[in-house]
Amino acid sequence: VGFQSRSPVEQYLHDLLAQIATNTEGTVADYIPELAKANPEHLAVVVVTVDGKVYSAGDADVPFTIQSVSKPFMFGYALQEYGLETVLKKVGVEPTGDPFNSIVLDDVNNRPFNPMVNAGAIAMSELLRGENHAEREATQMDFFSRFAGRKLTMDQTVYQSESDTGHRNRAIAYMMLNSGMINGPTEEVLDLYFRQCSILVTARDLAVMAATLAAHGRNVITGEQVISPGNVRDVLSVMATCGMYDYAGQWMFDVGLPAKSGVSGGIIAVLPGQLGIAVYSPRLDSVGNSVRGIEVCKRFTRDFSLHAYVDR
Ligand code: GLN
């Protein structure tokens, strides 16, 4: 392979990662043993524009499980299939200020507070269409693949580990069964949620998925309209208020873009009409967000004036 020059944007991203790589704060998630095996040094940033240009630096093709970054997409699926009115009977749009795995429902409406916390995501899992469990699994994988623009697969070991140790998620699901928010069969609904968290993606995939949200639901690689522009608006609104756990307010203040993070160290951010960003770095801060991922997003959005409320 001969000399390949980087584009100015890729050179910028490369330099940005070099500066941030020295930050070794945070710890890799270990709530399931499999996640603790992630290489803490992995670091990637990928930017994809709505016209499908891809700019990447670092470990952009290292696979990891999508975890909670899946949640806005699953909310999008529910909206697309059932419409807002039906979906809002199952989940609200208010931030909780509590951790993602909190065991609380909104006692006025008996709903999970929003689709970005586990309770809300599990309620969405029940909405997957299919005659039987295998069909619902296939529906799920097909939907995420259409967002990524390529056929995705699941990490069998992480899935097994999620399923073996997900007792808190079981508690959440059974509480919702008790209150009639889900109807069951509860173990099958949970199984779909565990599978969803265990889908393997790369930073490149996540950036394509984020860019597809930026492109109002039209996949920037395949051209397929995956969900409608109106549903994208609703997904992005909930990401803006609830996407970064109990850091959502500070994130909006600093970065100013709708975003979602997950415990394996991925973060996506979306600048509507323009681009999607994905970062990957497994060390997490105390609320569960990627330390270096946040740093990359802060600097990138500041350097290019991408904050939603900046005068451009
Ligand atoms: N599988 C994880 C859980 O449900 C996902 C959580 C996350 O990424 N925040 O606990």
Automatic annotation (TrEMBL):
This protein's record includes keyword Hydrolase: yes
Binding of substrate, residues: S68, N118, E162, N169, Y193, Y245, V263
Record-listed E.C. numbers: 3.5.1.2
Transmembrane segments: none
Known catalytic reactions: L-glutamine + H2O = L-glutamate + NH4(+)
A molecular function (GO) term: glutaminase activity
Keyword flag Ligase: no
UniProt KW keywords: Acetylation, Hydrolase
Family: Belongs to the glutaminase family.
Self-association and partners: Homotetramer.
Identification of the protein by name: Glutaminase
Organism whose genome encodes this protein: Rhodobacter flavimaris
Species lineage: Bacteria, Pseudomonadati, Pseudomonadota, Alphaproteobacteria, Rhodobacterales
Gene of this entry: glsA
Parent sequence residues shown: 8 to 319 of 619
